[in-house]
Design brief:
single chain; about 280 residues; alpha/beta; Rossmann fold; Immunoglobulin-like; 2 domains; five-stranded parallel beta sheet; elongated; Glycosyltransferase; FN3_sf; membrane
């Protein structure tokens, strides 16, 4: 009972494009349906790290289709991802986040809802093309796009019809939304929600740089520096060490080092006027 009380649903809120026009009504419906509190997060108003902190304990994440759904990576095991699609956008043709939830180790439940009622959409043909505007197109093409009921398959991601439809604002039909959600929850795997130990590994080091200095005709120094992986600050680790490999070009042997710092100057076995290959991880 205490675990149920602590659970909550997260709704991704947008303030400029792809709006959920009845967001407050959607939040109320979710709260009543699941008897849970519902919180909103926004990339426009919150830091990425604070959003991840909220999402990492959520029972469910609800969002319009968009890059913000990459944050479902940080959901706990057995959570549900609900992706909302605007009118004329077929969920079966846009599946990166559905694929993400099915990757080994994710153990997330995926649900998609599609607006099938054209009267529940608000279009923006006068916006810049990169936000779905079509005013720059020939009149016949504009009319064809506005009359279309289903975006045809296309290459990502500058197709004007796709942009026009994906940047619509949507009035979510609450009865159909809840109906889809109820059916999907019937097939949800019975996984116990636990915060598992992190299995996310650090990404690549960033901004790796090498500098050389010649001391004498027979002596040189090689300084290697780098920045921490982008995701390291989100991982709970007590100690971080870096592996540096140096190979003289044309040779088959390597000089390996394990270092705790983000820069180091090597002088042993470093020759002047010689090319070295360097790896850092």
């Amino acid at each position: 009972d205490k675990e149920k009380k602590d659970e909550y649903i997260v709704v991704f809120s947008r303030s400029t494009t792809r709006l959920i026009l009845n967001e407050a009504e959607l939040i109320l419906a979710l709260a009543q349906e699941f008897q849970m509190r519902v919180v909103t997060v926004s990339l426009e108003e919150q830091s990425f790290s604070s959003i991840i902190q909220v999402i990492s304990g959520a029972f469910m994440l609800v969002s319009m289709h968009g890059a913000q759904l990459i944050t479902s990576l940080f959901l706990p095991r057995a959570a549900t991802v609900v992706e909302l699609f605007p009118f004329a956008v077929n969920p079966e043709q846009y599946t990166p986040y559905k694929t993400l939830t099915s990757l080994p180790g994710m153990e997330l439940h995926y649900v998609s809802w599609r607006n099938i009622r054209e009267e529940n959409t608000v279009i923006h043909p006068q916006r810049p093309w990169e936000q779905g505007g079509i005013a720059h197109l020939e009149k016949e093409e504009q009319e064809r796009i506005m009359a279309s009921k289903d975006v045809p398959r296309h290459l990502c991601c500058r197709n004007p019809e796709w942009l026009f439809r994906i940047y619509q604002d949507t009035l979510v039909d609450i009865p159909s939304f809840l109906g889809v959600l109820r059916e999907a929850m019937k097939t949800k795997p019975n996984l116990k929600k636990v915060k598992t130990a992190s299995t996310v590994h650090p990404g690549r080091v960033r901004e790796a740089c090498c500098q050389t200095s010649i001391q004498t005709p027979n002596e040189a120094k090689l300084t290697v520096s780098w920045q921490i992986p982008w995701n390291l600050k989100y991982l709970k680790v007590r100690e971080v060490k870096y592996e540096v490999w140096i190979q003289e070009q044309g040779e088959n042997t390597y000089m390996p080092y394990i270092l705790p710092q983000l820069n180091y100057t090597f002088s042993d076995n470093i020759k002047p006027f010689t090319t070295y290959l360097v790896w850092v991880r």
